[in-house]
Specification:
With 169 residues, the chain is mainly beta. The chain has one helix and eight strands.
């Protein structure tokens, strides 16, 4: 008896993507998106969400605070969750979020986007998009830590887009 084994490779889903027309990956974030400009959020776009995605979460933070030569903390600039899977991004300077989107508190103890404003040196700003297998309950303006705790066990995929900024003044 001859046994024939067949190996079939299934193509995996393409990796989730996060891009911006406001800045290139690894590039400088324009001043308009910072405390030296209009403090407007950058344009963000996402695609290739994994199967089973029910909602998205976005966290933007700075792991280089206060000084990139001796970082002591990660400063949180924006916390969004329950972004609908039908959304494909956020416009620059977004004022109206997609229906159902909820906001958390940044490290200025308020909701909304707070742009780069590094006290010294060039900092990295990490835009992290999470695909979740649930729509989260209302967490009542959670901090980043509270949101990450609520997302535990529900993250299907994560992608990062990093931009940098250094004050000119």
């Amino acid at each position: 008896m001859i046994t024939l084994l067949l190996s079939v490779a299934f193509a995996e889903d393409p990796p989730m993507k996060l891009t911006s027309t406001s800045f290139a990956a690894g590039g400088e974030i324009p001043a308009v998106h910072t405390c030296e400009g209009e403090d407007r959020s950058p344009a963000l776009a996402w695609s290739d969400l994994p199967a089973g995605t029910k909602s998205l979460a976005l966290i933007v933070d700075d792991p280089d605070a206060p000084d990139p030569a001796a970082p002591k903390m990660t400063w949180v600039h924006w916390v969004l969750y329950d972004l609908p899977v039908t959304s494909t991004g956020l416009d620059a300077g977004v004022t109206t979020l997609p229906d159902g989107t909820r906001q958390g508190k940044n490290d200025w103890k308020r909701t909304g986007y707070g742009g780069p404003c590094p006290p010294i040196g060039r900092h990295r700003y990490v835009h992290q998009l999470y695909a979740l297998d649930v729509v989260l309950d209302d967490l009542h303006e959670p901090t980043k830590v509270q949101l990450l705790k609520a997302m535990e066990g529900h993250v299907l995929a994560k992608v990062e887009l990093i931009g940098t900024y250094q004050k000119t003044k």
